[in-house]
Design goal:
single chain; 404 residues; mainly beta; Elongation Factor Tu (Ef-tu), domain 3; Phage tail protein beta-alpha-beta fold; six-stranded antiparallel beta barrel; four-stranded antiparallel β-sheet; 5 helices; globular
């Protein structure tokens, strides 16, 4: 018997005697994207086998009027009042959570903006970039003003005090809840009301508990923006900004299961390039204030604490430190996840995809790899330039294949 669970419904497949395939008609979702089909096969001996397969669903796109012109809305950083809306004449906009690269946009005329103000850049009526002004340059009184911008999560580029009681939220409720609590305590409802940004509204849309602590701590202080970026890279936490009811809303969500398909065979994908390295971390040695903890990678991509496991994978050794021994298992798993960064994928696409968006890349040989958008560069042209991170390709199988 063969069954498949697709989009919340379970179907029993029927064998087609002419083709030899098991078949079933399913109801397609109304929204396009990548959906997972969970297939279960039970043989005549009663043994059950399971397989997950990504299914691509295509839907018709609603026509829209598009323009390549960029416009920048400027909001006062103190009260979020709109200051100006100006057309961008030159742009090199970079969203990059991994390196925090700056962006440069040029406009004509003095908008009255100042350092720290919040900007929203639109194309075809859609916000494609939220940022904050780092500095404004104007040479010799010329009409052109150059704005240096940072991605909007830099609103929280500040050292905050580590409250050990509050960090229990990471384990019991979720990293999203801990981040939201830190934003609220330090930027919205601070006891020093003068620094509060009452126009911020934080919405937690998912809960991802992890057996870990904040890692970038020194003298009981850590940078909140750095921790937020770490959570994007390690736990697929994404931050979405938008205006609602006069407030700047921030949705915090684990979006690992919501993927967008990038098919490199389509005409609107250009300059696709991928480079893979097979050097991986196969052993993580965690030093703590009490005992050491060692975790080993196996050839099937699972892990073991057994040093003599016959299926251990070959690779390099990574030595890291965490104060609490209870944090060591999660710290080791996070270190193994860095294996997914041994690659470089770039492509150009004529549609905007926000940083942090999970994607499934379909290559010319019809393979599908999971990844996410780690960097996007926006300019005055039609195409956006993208780089990917965190690709979950089967590195170990690739190594074994190369050895054969």
């Amino acid at each position: 018997m063969v069954q498949v669970t697709f989009n919340g419904t379970t179907y029993t497949l029927v064998k087609n005697v002419q083709t030899g395939y098991y078949e079933v008609e399913v109801t397609a979702p109304s929204t396009g994207g990548i959906y997972t089909a969970e297939v279960t096969y039970t043989d005549s001996l009663g043994d059950t086998y399971n397989l997950d397969k990504d299914i691509q669903i295509l839907t018709k796109q609603v026509p829209s009027i598009e323009t390549e012109n960029l416009y920048m809305w400027i909001f006062d950083w103190r009260d979020f009042e709109a200051k100006a809306a100006v057309e961008v004449i030159e742009a090199e906009i970079v969203e990059d959570e991994e390196t925090n690269s700056p962006s440069n946009v040029s406009v004509i005329g003095n908008s009255g903006a100042e350092s720290g103000d919040i900007v929203a850049i639109k194309r075809s009526g859609e916000v494609i970039y939220w940022g904050i002004i780092d500095e404004i340059q104007n040479e010799n009184g010329e009409a052109k003003f150059i704005y240096k911008l940072r991605y909007i999560t830099n609103l929280f580029d500040q050292g905050v005090w580590l409250n050990q009681v509050q960090t229990s939220l990471i384990r019991t409720t979720g990293v999203e809840d801990y981040i939201a609590g830190q934003i609220d305590a330090n930027f919205i409802n601070n006891t020093d009301t003068f620094v509060n940004r009452t126009y911020l509204q934080v919405n937690v849309l998912s809960h991802t508990p992890k057996n870990t602590n904040v890692s970038n701590v020194e003298n009981n202080i850590f940078n909140l923006h750095t921790w937020m970026t770490n959570c994007t890279q390690l736990y697929d936490i994404q931050y979405r900004f938008y205006i609602d009811s006069g407030k700047l809303n921030i949705d915090i969500e684990n979006v690992a299961q919501t993927k967008m398909l990038i098919d490199t065979n389509f005409n609107n994908i250009s300059d696709y390039e991928e480079v893979f390295e097979t050097q991986i971390t196969a052993k993580v040695w965690v030093l703590t204030d009490t005992n050491d903890y060692k975790l080993y990678l196996k050839n099937d991509r699972t892990t073991t604490t057994n040093q003599n496991d016959p299926d251990r994978a070959a690779g390099k050794v990574d030595v890291i430190y965490t104060a609490e021994y209870s944090d060591a298992p999660q710290a080791a798993l996070d270190a193994f996840k860095s294996n997914s960064y041994n690659h470089n994928i770039t492509f150009k696409y004529d549609k905007y995809i926000p940083v942090g968006t999970p994607i499934a890349i379909k290559t010319t040989n019809q393979s599908i790899y999971d990844s996410y958008i780690s960097k996007v560069t926006i300019n005055s042209g039609k195409f956006y330039e993208y780089e990917c991170g965190n690709i979950r390709i089967n590195f170990i199988d690739k190594i074994l294949k190369e050895r054969k």
